[in-house]
Amino acid sequence: MKSTHVAVVFMAGYAWVVAGAAPFKTLSCLLVATPCVVFVVAYVRMGGLSVDHSEVNEYFLRKARGTTLLSVAPWIALLTAAVALETIGLLLGGRSADVPTLSTTVDHILAVRWERSLLCLTWLFAGGFALLRHWRLFHVRKS
Amino acid sequence: MLVTGIWCALFMVGVLIDTVGRLRPDGVATFDRATAIIESRITGRAILILLWVFVGFHLFARYTVPHS
Predict the structure, then answer these.
(1) Which of A98, A107, B45, B61 has its CB 3.0 to 4.6 Å from that of A28, i.e. a possible disulfide?
(2) Confidence of residue A51 (pLDDT cuts 50, 70, 90)
């Protein structure tokens, strides 16, 4: 429990540092690349992308059990709507004020450092959660 | 402005679908269960990792604040 708190505080601090780096600079790229490399290396080392570990596939299949095309239809419809809107936005040049893409919409939130920091923390949490879940699966597999 | 509202609405619809999925697991899949289908294949997991990396670089290393 204590290590979880330390990890959350560390990620919050890291997100604040990332949010303070100017875009399109080497520093900002390095700050984003570091967690990416850590995540991908850890994930691969735990067999997340290995063909020899069919139990990983089975774990997710068990989780998705009972899921039918009808039950995921709302997600497919939502994704289709988002893709259609993004495509129209991109066809209009990508930075249209009338039909902004998702990136342009999110850019407004990124204007303020604390908002950028919160969004970055969410991004780190998403990666961290996926890694933690895989780590638990990895330890169950080993024991 | 209208389309920005639509993007927000789409996000809210996503939250709503997930909530309905938790209340009625037999009728609607939650986000977690829907993505589990993708994650059940190595290719799917690799795509999700690439997407996560792309989002990171796109939002936090290569963003541009729009001029109003």
Answers:
(1) B61
(2) confident
Report pLDDT for B25.
87
Of B62, B6, B63, B9, nearest in space to A108 by CA: B63
| Tokens, residue A122 | 């969410």
State the pLDDT at residue A70: 92
Residues of A in contact with B55 (CB under 8 A): 123
Residue B49 counted as domain residue: yes
Range of the domain at A60: 3-140
B18 touches chain A (CB under 8 A): no
pTM of the model: 0.88
Tell me whether residues A61 and B40 touch, CB distance under 8 A.
Answer: yes
Is position B62 within any domain? yes
Q: Which of A105, A116, A118, A122 to probe the B interface (max B CBs under 10 A)?
A: A105
What residue numbers bound the domain in which B40 lies?
30-68
Considering only CB atoms, which chain B residues are within 8 Å of A40?
49, 53
Does A130 reach chain B within 8 Å, measured CB to CB?
A: yes
Q: What are the distances in angstroms from CA A33 to CA A37, B2, B23, B65? A: 6, 35, 38, 21
Domain count of the fold of chain B: 1
pLDDT at B24 over 80: yes
Number of neighbours of residue A89 by Cβ within 10 angstroms: 22
Pair A110, A20: CB distance under 8 Å: no
Number of domains within chain A: 1
Q: How confident is the model at residue B65 (pLDDT cuts 50, 70, 90)?
A: confident
